[in-house]
Amino acid sequence: MVEAFFGFKKAPFGDSPDAKQLFPSQAWNQAKARLQFLADHHGAGLLTGEVGSGKSTAARCFTAALNPNLYKILYLHWTPGSTLDLLRQLALELDLEPAHYRGDLVRQISGAIVRLNRSKKQHPILICDEAQLLCHSALEQLPLLLNFDMDSSRYLTLLLVGQPLLRRTLSLQMHEPLRQRIAVQYHLEGLSREELDAYLAHQLKAAGVTQPLFDDTARQALYQVTKGILRKVNKLALTALRLAASRKESTVGESILLDATTEALP
Length: 266
Ligand SMILES: Nc1ncnc2c1ncn2[C@@H]1O[C@H](COP(=O)(O)OP(=O)(O)OP(=O)(O)O)[C@@H](O)[C@H]1O
Ligand SMILES: [Mg+2]
Hints:
Structural class: alpha/beta
CATH topology of the largest domain: Rossmann fold
CATH superfamily of the largest domain: P-loop containing nucleotide triphosphate hydrolases
Oligomer: single chain
Number of strands: 5
CATH architecture of the largest domain: 3-Layer(aba) Sandwich
Shape: elongated
Largest sheet: 5 strands, parallel
Helix content: 40-55%
Distance between the termini: 23 Å
Mean pLDDT: 93
Number of helices: 12
CATH class of the largest domain: Alpha Beta
Bound molecules: adenosine-5'-triphosphate, magnesium ion
C-alpha cells in the first residue's frame, strides 16, 4: 500500500540497512574513526549510546567491512548470565568444544586466540554487545583475556557495546583494570536537526523517491519527538507514511505526524 501509493521501489526506513546505505551522520563518522584506530592498534574500546541510536549497526557494519583474512570477528550478543556462560559462548565463537571448568576454558580460549594470531595471522576482535547486561565478575574476566602471562603482545581486541548504564558500571573502582585498557571510546548521540532532514531525503532516495514527502512542520515535530534517535525516526516516519497513504495525502504534515506518534511511540 505505502510502496504503491508513493511509488517506492522498496520500503524506506527498514530495520536492517545494507552497509552501503548507512547514513553517514557525524556520529557514525566519529565512531568509525575510533573503531578504525582500534582495529589498527588493538586493545579495548567502548561504544555507548541511547537505546536505538545505532550502536549495534555501527559495530556490525564496521567489522563486516574489515578484511576477513586479517581479522576474525567474535560477536557475543549478551543476555544476563554467569562468567562461565560468557566464556562458553566465546569458546563456541572460536569453534572450540567448551571445557567444563573455568580454568580449562580460559586456557582453551587463550590458546585458540594465540594460534589465530600466530598461525593464521588473523587478529580476533571480540564484540560484546549489550554489555550493560554483563555481570561484574564477567567484566572482571575480560582484562584477563587481553593479556596472557608475561607476554605484552595484544592478541585480542575487545569492543564493548552498550547502553549508558555500561559507562556507570565501568566507573566503579573494581573495573579500573578494564577501564585502564580502554584506548578509544565514543558515545553515539541522535541525529542533529539538520542531519534529520538529510536522513529523510537519504532514506526516500534509497527507496527511489526524490521529492520531499515530509513538510517543514512534520520534520520539526519528528525531531522533537525522536531527538534524532534512529530506531524511533524509522518507526515514526514509516508509520506516518502509512497513515498518509491510507488518507490519500501526498505529503506528511504535522497532524499526520502527531497521529503517527500516538500509534508508533506509545
Ligand atoms: N547509520 C545508519 N543509517 C541508517 N539506519 C541506521 C543507521 N544506524 C542505525 N540505523 C537503524 O537504526 C535502528 C537502530 O539501530 P541499532 O539496532 O544499531 O541501535 P542500538 O543502539 O544497537 O539499539 P539497542 O540499544 O536497542 O541495542 C536500526 O533499525 C538500524 O537499522
Ligand atoms: Mg544494539
